[in-house]
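pipeline: protein-struct stage 2 | run 1193 | Isocitrate lyase/phosphoenolpyruvate mutase family protein
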Amino acid sequence: MTNAAVFRSLHDPADPLVLANAWDAASARIVAAAGARAVATTSAGVAWAHGVRDGGALSRDAMLAHLARVVAAVDVPVTADVESGFGATPEDVAATLRGVAEAGAVGVNLEDGAGPALRPVDEQVARIAAARAAAPEVFLNARIDTYLRGVRDFDGTVARAHAYLAAGASGIFVPGVVDPDTVGALAAAIPAPLNILAGPGAPSVAELGKLGVARVSLGSWVAEAAYGVARRVAQEAFGAGTYTSLAGAIEYGELQSLMSP
């Protein structure tokens, strides 16, 4: 079975796919060694690793080169966060998807946000159709940003989901909602694998699976937590002059082992 087929098969509410999103080759290897069945990138973490803001500041070429290193670092399937597709036109999105496939990734997240607003449905449908045509084997996870942007429009979200699936999406990602009643209703109304963004305070993976969720992502939370450790360590060393925040670090030898070819 190909990595693409394996990845597609992992989307099952009976045993949801859990993605502790990585942002570089090292974090990808750490996540894989912890038992990940697949590795996902986080666009925010990748952007921050390059010293730029999330949301279009990184170039497509830089993203693809970074993605290729992540793919080469692990044996499990890799899915890439490609933001809104790295370009203004459907042709731009198609070019991005071809690059993702060439880098060896088997999935993407493609969001429908455009700056401060959501793209009109017809525009996003055209972008998804172009992505599908450019990379037929890639699992296309269509992200709907209604709830993430505070637009709690259930009917509108479901309508977008159906339109995106008709255009070629493989699954639907609705970040910004963890309320069990809403999540369960979304899972029932969307005839495709549903992906939910989880973090502190969200239902457990098992609880989300019972609601019909097939995929649980941690998004940028993992990178944020790692950078939080770096800040706490620095503040403690510069302030109290102590080092207790370093407790719990992965030992040098273990990291060396994980990074060995």
